Batch of 4 targets.
Target 1
Amino acid sequence: MSWQRTADAVVIGGGMMGMATAYYLAKLGMKDVVLLEKNTVASGATGRCAAAFRSTWGGELNIILGKACIDKYEHLSEELGMDIGLYQNGYLFIAYSDEQLENFRKCIKLQNSLGVPSRMLSHDEAKELCPGINLNGTKGFYWHKRDGHADPMLTNFAHQEAAKREGVVIHKFTDVTGFKMTEGAVKGVCTDKGDIDTNIVINAAGAWSGRVAALAGLSIPVHGERHEIFATEPVEFGVCPTFVMSYDPDFYMQQRPHGSIIAGCGPSRYRKEAAPFNDYEMGHSWNFLEHMTGIMNKVLPRTKGIRVVRQWSGMYDITPDMQPVIGEAEEMKGFWMNVSGSRGFMFGPVAGEMVAEQIILGKTSLPIEKFHWSRYARGEFLVDTAIA
Ligand SMILES: Cc1cc2nc3c(=O)[nH]c(=O)nc-3n(C[C@H](O)[C@H](O)[C@H](O)COP(=O)(O)OP(=O)(O)OC[C@H]3O[C@@H](n4cnc5c(N)ncnc54)[C@H](O)[C@@H]3O)c2cc1C
């Protein structure tokens, strides 16, 4: 693909956040949009994630946006003209303590008040939804039917193809190495393949976006944290046909429609030593495998003896309050951030559209302005009690 020296906007990162941003910029009428990706599309966290989406959050903003994500996911295959492997059978949250149960009740109240019809389930109802589940030690359950998951590769690829149809130019294996700047404004992007002059840059480099921002002299608190995950051999569908999640112990499990069970948890649960800050090493560990298979066997006893066939890791894009970092840098006109705070699969399409609206229309149809990272300098952190 020939190299163009100028663009109306350059998006950095070919994961869900970047690809959706590029697609919506072009769809909303921007002519010359270029996306740069240092590896292949979906090679970052997007291609390695559990690809679930939910509106069952514990903070108002996340519930509103989560609901918008579901509305979007339900029509994404039609919009993008490709199957995205959508599967909706809800998130089933399990409480193992009275404290968690109380948190569930509060979350449900807030969710219901914002139009998300989540509800508590009896043990019998939970068993009916998830026949393989072990009820021992559980205190209660809640569920929301429209939560679900999709195929991360298909979804990212569908955005890529739709973006290309809208005229977006995508350069893979192109590493952003710096920026052209005048005082207070971005003027271009430098890469290992050449430079592109532009007045608008959108940094959607996920876990690496703090590093990319640093190339422009900006200190924006995003770093990577390695999270591991595995997939089992396919077993008869119906062991856990809903997405199952608990905050303590921290785990999630889902059975894909072809029978394989995917399971993961946060690193603090199995790493013997604290992960070094900015740990970008994508290995995977025996500790995780041992810890996670133990939990899976307890929660879903029918999985005892089945084989784990793949194990891998990916980088969570971590921010100080585990919430998105979105907006234009106050000290660098034209330099935008679009970082999800570790929910970029579900959030990507909506965040991409909102950032495109903000850039092109100067306003957004959903309230994303609270996600600007200037909140940290004011000592403000967004609180959500539904994050593991
Ligand atoms: C195990 C695991 C499970 C998860 N489960 C879920 C889930 O169920 N639901 C959910 O919503 N989220 C989940 N997440 C989080 C989610 O995957 C991420 O938040 C999301 O993929 C981030 O998307 P992104 O586009 O911002 O980043 P990425 O997909 O990481 O893409 C960023 C891209 O930027 C590129 N890049 C970096 N530096 C440069 C540079 N200098 N030049 C050019 N390109 C560059 C990278 O190569 C990368 O491809 C999970 C993550 C992991 C690891």
Target 2
Amino acid sequence: MIKDLLVVGAGSAGLMAALALKKKIPQLNVRIVRDPDIGVIGVGEGTTPNFPRFLFDYLGISRKAFYDLAEPTWKLGIRFNWGPRGRFDYTFAPQLDSRWGDLPMPNGFYCEDEFSCVDAPAALMREDKVFHKQSNGCPDIQPWHAFHIENEKFVAMLEKLTVQLGVEIIDGRVQGAERGDAGVSAVVLDDGRRLEADFFIDSSGFRAELIGKLLETPYMDFRKTLFCDRAVVGGWQREEEEILPYTTADQMDSGWCWRIEHEHRINRGYVYASDMTSDDEAEREFREKNPKVGDTRVVKFNSGCHKKMWVENVVSIGNSAGFVEPLEATALMIVCSHTQTLIDFLLHNRLEPTPSMRDLYNELTHSTWLDIRDFLGLHYQLNTALDTPYWRRCREETDLSDLRPLLEFYKENGPTGFARYRMRSSQNDFGIEGYFVMLVGQKVPHGNRHQPTDLEWQRWNAHREDLIRKAKDGLTVKEALAYVRHPQWQWHGDRAAG
Ligand SMILES: Cc1cc2nc3c(=O)[nH]c(=O)nc-3n(C[C@H](O)[C@H](O)[C@H](O)COP(=O)(O)OP(=O)(O)OC[C@H]3O[C@@H](n4cnc5c(N)ncnc54)[C@H](O)[C@@H]3O)c2cc1C
């Protein structure tokens, strides 16, 4: 039976895992070892809606603590400046996998020419507003939002809450490990200390100290589907720019560029393929399109994941398990969902996990990674807008063989929810809606086209105009932040009263 659990690493992955394990299984003795000299990844991060659900609903972290300590801004979705339309918005609510009651076909069939303001968050994004107003003027904070956070602030908050819960954090560098009958029995630090445990979480980031270096678990790289392997990262202090309620993804000559909104800083990064452009050339294009960028640094990565995330008595969570470029901001989403799955499985087996439970965990987690690989690959493969060598390669070479049944179904039947039965089952926040937004957003032709009548168009336009009118009356991020920071603001779930 697992009694002592050691987490290697105190980045957001290790701390979220430690916090959740201790909270949900209080009888566990949970400790963390981390090396302050190595530090945490320290990037600006976008998230998806499972992140607030995990923090507030699953872990019971108070919204006040989170807003005070992590200082997030809200994210309603991603603005893609991308593809033949030039622009489309991906929100976290069903825009296309949805149908108005007075129309005969799902929304996707009405978006061939104009695809905008199809749901409330999309209309808010168009107006640079983040929430509707309640009748008393306060923001109506709906669950279809995620956040932008700064990694260091978030990590500092998690550290505080983890220690409050009774988790011990030990400073030291893991240098090796001892093996016993049940797997790893202790990790050994560079000063000779030994830390014993019956179960280990490897959250050591890209170093993958246990799952990779020690256990030599094979790594599956995604280079046949995702060609980018570097990012040049920079940003600037916000001046007069509005805080946008979404992440922006701009297509670039050899990849794409993110824009993440923090309250006082704008964070940008150009993700590119190093075999299609040089670091110097990427930096030049990055600066040319973002003249305000200050110092930059290049981050190298190898998109892919370990073939197994759970080996013997070691489970890897975070960048140690796998990594893909942040095109859909999936890393923390995976940390949340896999941590929950692990805890469910451990509790079901009363802390004596069976081999078949471990196998199921590996199948589920692996399938999540493959799904994300293919979903990101689709973003690239469908983009017909640019004719640079990089984008030609994306169209010609991106391996999406696992998506063939779904894409063929779409080609014949269009954006109908029945397509979900052609998807691999896995745990993510995108679902069939994510695929529809990419397919419709990039104008991929399909059969079974619908010719709406004049009456249908009237109804369709009335719905959109109503959404736009309400959105125009909404609050900006700055205005909404002022409300939630007001001393009289009280959180009652998301629908707070001012
Ligand atoms: C350019 C870029 C952009 C990103 N954007 C996003 C985004 O928009 N959204 C998103 O969800 N994610 C994003 N990510 C990923 C995200 O930052 C991470 O997945 C997340 O923060 C978790 O990191 P981690 O805890 O796994 O690793 P890290 O933050 O690297 O932490 C590793 C920990 O392990 C410890 N450690 C390492 N080796 C040892 C050792 N030998 N002994 C002891 N301790 C050790 C370190 O001290 C540290 O505490 C991005 C990543 C990159 C590179």
Target 3
Amino acid sequence: MDVHESLLELIGDTPLVRLRTPGDDHSARLYAKLEYLSVGGSVKDRIALRMIEDAERRGLLKPGGTVVEASSGNTGVGLALVAAAKGYRAVIVIPDKTSAEKAATLRALGAEVVVRPGMLPIDHPDQVVNTATRLAAEIPGGWMAAQYDNPANPEAHYATTGPEIWQQTEGRITHLVCCVGTGGTISGTGRYLKEVSGGGVRVIGADPDSSVYSGGDGRPYFVEAAGRWRHPETPEDCWPASFHQEVVDEILPVTDRESIMTIRRTARESGLLVGGSAGTALAAARRVAAGLGPDDLVVAVLPDSGKQYLSKYFDDGWLLRLGFLDGDPATVRVADALTDGERARPLPYLHRHRTVGEALAELRAREAAGAEPVLPAGPAPVGPSRRPTAPELVGAVRLVELDEAVAAGRVGPDQSLDEQLGAPLPQFGGGESAEQALATLRSAPDATAVVLHDGHAVGLVTEEQLRAALGRP
Ligand SMILES: Cc1ncc(COP(=O)(O)O)c(C=O)c1O
């Protein structure tokens, strides 16, 4: 019989498919490795199985034990699936930006899901990895998979992904392109392919453009699970032990917009529905292939399916709200209400660790200049002129509230603003209709909103400016 006795036999062994994009005029062959066809739906099934079996062998995970992990979803799903198949309990800690589909999948597989804010510095006790480490220590029989530092992560790819690609291409692969999250995929697969080819395979990382791996400033981005961002208040960053940098020849930065537009186009033009980090890998792989000839064969590893992101990258409303779509040019859009001068200046906002006295002075100066006495607030940015990413703006500071707090003696002018942050300002994508934005602002407490372009805050817009752009009195 052509049957499998265990679900675990259906992990990995994924196909390679040729990708031909209309308009591409290079002669190199580009193949995609479809990791979403693994039984749990992602590249992470491979490491889940390997890490659990390794822990069993070492006696770290025993019958009745609990698998604990911090995961943006896919590793959690892989672990929950293997744990269910083997009879373990699973507790998965996820950052709050994880897509709703991934969180629902974890719960459906019987895992207990713990959600923590994604926007915390690395040494904060509630940060996702710190939360998981604590839970693993507290739960009797708990074992933390620790994908970022577990050698079984790259080993899984050295033992399976690498050999599969070598056999499937009959040793003809010349370039490997992968995203780098924990670094497990690129390190294990890349190391195997380099060894077996005698150094003939070039290994290229594909990275969100602000990720620190490709030299970015570490500000957050919207492609999930790839790259490494760094909270501005994280004092010193330490790269994961699962990432073996010496295996990687080059890392190419790819913007969120390019990753997202690549998967939308690939879905429509080739019928291949893949996730955001697959878009990062595909965009980089196309760039690599463009400079190559007919003897070259590029393999891009596509980590998961687009079905997990239907409410994000494939949802026009989500894209419009974050400023990834430019909106209908026949209507007045929110961005039309900003002047060229406002677009050129960095967004005015308050660093959460400045003093109450400084904030009061700034808000009074705004009021005197006729502007709304309210400003968005967030962590200090890494570079002086960089624009914050939407999720970094975690609150707002309002003159009335601050004055009240000082008058009531709840805070002094030399104290930090941090405890005084009020609810964040509304945010609009620059391509959203100015009419609709105006209607929303009318019922909001402040007459001011933040305008986003490609997920970054680029300016502040007031009710008055929107009305002027619409030609209303
Ligand atoms: C969707 C997705 N893309 C990319 C990656 C990065 O892979 P790796 O952690 O092996 O570097 C992951 C892993 O978390 C993932 O889930």
Target 4
Amino acid sequence: MVIRDGDTIAAIATAPGDSGIGIVRLSGPEAISIAESIFESISGSPLGDLPDRRLNYGYVKDPTSGERVDEVLVAAMRAPRTYTREDMVEINCHGGSVPLKKVMALVVDKGARVAEPGEFTKRAFLNGRIDLSQAEAVIDIINSKSEMGLRTAMSQLDGGLSRRLGVIKEKLLAMMARIEASIDFPEHDIEEITREALEHGAKETVDMLERLIATASSGKLVREGLKTAIVGKPNVGKSSLLNALLRENRAIVTDVPGTTRDIIEEYINIKGVPLRIMDTAGIRETEDIVEKIGVEKTKEYLDRADLILFVLDAARPISEEDRTIFEIIQGKRVIVLINKTDLKVEIDMGEIEEAFRDKPVIPMSLLKDEGLDTLEEKIHDMVFSGQVRSSDPVMVTNVRHEDCLKRARKSLLEAIESIDAGLPLDLISIDIKESMEALGEITGESITEEIVDRIFHDFCIGK
Ligand SMILES: Nc1nc2c(ncn2[C@@H]2O[C@H](COP(=O)(O)OP(=O)(O)OP(=O)(O)O)[C@@H](O)[C@H]2O)c(=O)[nH]1
Ligand SMILES: [Mg+2]
């Protein structure tokens, strides 16, 4: 694929608002000449004559009025060793929105087009510097919510996922080659050997795909954060738990039941796992209108939560309010926390064990800082259960990739069925080809322009 129109694009690449510096970025065949026409270097040399990839001090000047707009550092970077593989210029301005907009207006006046979101990275992909999964990793790096999310995205940018897929594609190619050889030399015993080899190869490849697909649910959580809701009846210590996990006094804690009225939402990292954690209003039957709305909202949030931390008070017997919550959270991913174990224990542990047989139950005292470590370990283990190791940076974090992998697997399973049913080899090769195409969609070898456009549309301007 090549860029259809060789136009030059420009964008303010830094975040809006006041800052120390702000960068206007250009890419395309006219990038250097456009920047040259508004740049007055301190040495007097035109930008095109200045050394490549060096910051040059000077001014942006409005060529019509001759007025100096901003004091800047400008770098020209010549193709092909650039982010987009085209000529690029970065103009480092002062970070206010007025100078940046003025510089943008000048480059547009000189012929640059305002870039669409993600268009720089899209050019890097279309010009073959990175594949599609690597381009998608760029946006994940920008949006990453935790160190683990960042590490996973960096590994994807580095081609970690692409290389794993490369190994799988090699296997499929080898199978295709066998089929072709066998069709060219159609002696019976060769065909038998081919069938056996194909079945073996297909099964191995399905296993490799399974292993990648198995990382997807953890991958999604690493990327987006685990939606976690803290629930329990009033005054059990929900807000105290949020504060303890955050290690700061974010939520108001008092001994008055019904202290938290609205939902408080924060991001925290637990052993590298990002949690979007919500402290909720204590659930109880109430006539107070504000509290009632809070409780209704809590019920809504519970429906959408990936994980529920259900807090009980060790010093009080199980009440009707607790039992109402038991019912609401049945069938969800729950960790049960028995808080205030520093007090005289009145709760019936037998009933808890009975009601939450298959769920972890952790005694804790937030007052004495006990049980938190166990909780953090449990959360980590829940996210990285089974085959997924948190130390392996190659993870499927993207729903689009997961879908492609599943389609690749489906085609291969069909191939295996066809082999078992003794169907002709050229029919089997169709399934294998389909599988390869599904994998090619991840890296962008086989993909429609429409999907490419949709992917890059989620990017920010200037990237
Ligand atoms: N003894 C003891 N008291 C605790 C413990 N954890 C919290 N508390 C106290 O319990 C009271 C209620 O704590 P909160 O965190 O406000 O409880 P909550 O569940 O958020 O309450 P609402 O927002 O009213 O639903 C406060 O006085 C806390 O200091 C604990 O482990 N032991
Ligand atoms: Mg509270």
